[in-house]
Amino acid sequence: MALGARRSSEKTQILRLGLPKGNLQDATISLFGKAGFRISVPDRSYFPTIDDDDVECVLIRPQEMARYIEQGVLDAGITGRDWIEENRAKVRELAELVYSKQSFRPARWVVAVPEDSPIKKISDLQGARIATEAVELAKRWLKKNGVKANVEFSWGATEVKPPLLADAIVEVTETGSSLRANKLRIIETIMESTPRLIANHDAYKDPWKQRKLDRLALLLRAALAAEGRVGLMMNVPKDNLSKVLQLLPALASPTVSPLADGKMVAVNTVIDEFRVREVIPDLVEAGASGIVEFPLSKVIE
Q1: What is the residue extent of each domain of the chain?
Q2: Taking the CA atoms of the chain, what radius of gyration do you get in angstroms?
Q3: Which CATH architecture has domain 5-103+195-225?
Q4: Fold agreement (5-103+195-225, 107-193)
C-alpha cells in the first residue's frame, strides 16, 4: 500500500513525516510528547499513530531519511546532520534539535584505534584499513587531511573490528563508553552532529505544508528549551524587590505584578532547575514568601 493511501479518501492534505528508527526513536517520541503530540508505535509496525489527522508518520532509519526527503517520498523528517552530509542531500533545514539517545549534547564522529596501536595522529592512518558506516564522511575527511586509506563499509558492531578486521574505525559516540569498553582510544574528532528537522524543498513551497512544518518546528524547539528549566513564582514586599531580583538568574526579565494590598508584588521567572536548591533558601532570606516551583513543558524564546 502506498504511503498515505489509508487516508487519501479522508484528507486532501497530508504531511508525510519521517521519524528516526533505532537509537533516537524513543527520545524522538518523548520529545514530540512534550511538544504536545502523542505518538504510539504498534508492535512490528513502521507506521506510528499520531494524534494529528493532518500528519502521517513512518519510521525510517536515520541513515536513509535525508535521501527519501530529498526525493519527495517524505515531506519532512528528523535525522542527524551527519547523515544529511553523508548523503549530500539537498534538503531544507527547519530546526536544529539538540537531543540524543542518552543526553542533550551533540554526538561525535571520531577516529578510534586499539589502545596499543602505533597510530597516534592523522598522518599515521596512511594506508590503513578503516571500518565505518559513514564511508563518504570518512573519505572526505581523509582527503581533506591528505591521507590515503582503505575505507570499508561496516554493517554494524564496528567497535569489535580492530585490530583483526580493521586498523581503525570511524564511529559515532556520545560518551565514549562503548569505545573504552572495547579497548579503543580516540585520536581525532571528525564532526559533531545533532538531529535536524528537515523538509523537501518542493513540499516546503506548499503554503499549507510550510505552515504545518513551521508550527511543528516551533513546538519542538519550545519543548527542548524547557528541558532542565522550571518556573518560580513568589510574593515579595516592595521594599525587598531589588534584593530578590538580584538573586534571580532569569531566562528574561522577571515578570513583576502589583498585588491588591499595595505592599507586595508577585514575581514570576524561569530558571535552570539545578539552581533551585540554592536559590530558594536565598529568596526566603531576602523576604520572598509563597514560593511555588512548577514544571515547564514548553518555553518560547
Answers
A1: 5-103+195-225, 107-193, 229-295
A2: 25
A3: 3-Layer(aba) Sandwich (3.40)
A4: yes
3-state secondary structure of 51: coil
Specify the amino acid at residue 163.
P
The owner of cell 519542538 is 220
CA dist., res. 230 & res. 99, Å (int): 18
Give the pLDDT confidence of 89-142 residue by residue, as tens digits. Answer: 999 999 999 987 665 678 899 999 999 999 999 999 999 999 999 999 999 999
CB 113 within 8 A of CB 184: yes
User: Three cell numbers at 73?
Assistant: 517520498
Pick from 285, 287, 244: which is nearest to 268 by CA? 244
Q: Which CATH architecture does the domain made up of 107-193 adopt?
A: 3-Layer(aba) Sandwich (3.40)
Q: Find the angle CA(97)-CA(100)-CA(105) to the nearest 5 degrees.
A: 75
* Contacting residues for 216 by C-beta, under 8 A, at least 6 apart: 35, 76, 197
Find out if CATH 3.30.70.120 is the number for domain 229-295. Answer: yes
pLDDT at residue 106, rounded to an integer: 86
Distance CA 254, CA 221 (A): 22
Q: The whole model's pTM is what?
A: 0.84
Residue 123's Cβ-count burial label (10 Å; 0-12, 13-18, 19+) is exposed
C-alpha 62, offset from chain centre? 13
